[in-house]
Write a structure and sequence with these properties.
Blueprint (H helix, E strand, L loop, with lengths): L9 H21 L6 H4 L10 H12 L1 H4 L13 H7 L22 H6 L26
């Protein structure tokens, strides 16, 4: 999950509500205690300060179902933003709108990049330059 909080304490409050609600529902429905990060400890958060880092994180998140071999193409996972942007058809009632747009433009060849097996070492060939201070996005128009 990639989140962009509006204010300083928003992320912690949201994650606490999400994990507590999920853990309680799991325990009530399964009559057992769960294991793993959600049940045993605090979530981890990492600030993303460069566009290249953001693209690497988004690629990792959007290809999770593909990496787990749940789908043949990442955009076929209906519970992912990639499906909403590239896989859903206009007549699909379950195609809910995205919660928010990306803070940068999506790279031109994003789908093949997400579905590719290799890990991209640099995003500079896709028209992105490092922007530690601000989000300038694409450099090639």
């Amino acid at each position: 999950m990639v989140l962009w909080p509006r204010d300083g304490g928003d992320l912690g409050v949201f994650m606490q509500r999400l994990t507590i609600t999920h853990a309680r529902r799991w325990q009530e429905n399964r009559h057992c205690h769960g294991t793993g990060h959600v049940y045993q400890g605090r979530y981890k958060s990492f600030p993303i300060e460069q566009d290249e880092h953001l693209l690497a994180v988004l690629r990792y998140v959007e290809r999770n179902a593909l990496g787990a071999r749940l789908v043949k193409r990442a955009q076929n996972w209906r519970w992912c933003a990639l499906w909403r942007r590239h896989g859903a058809t206009g007549d699909d009632d379950s195609a809910a709108p995205l919660l928010a747009e990306w803070p940068i433009d999506e790279p031109r060849h994003w789908l093949p990049t997400v579905n590719a097996a290799e890990v991209r070492r640099s995003w500079k060939g896709y028209g992105y330059a490092s922007t530690a201070a601000g989000r300038t996005g694409r450099t090639d128009g």
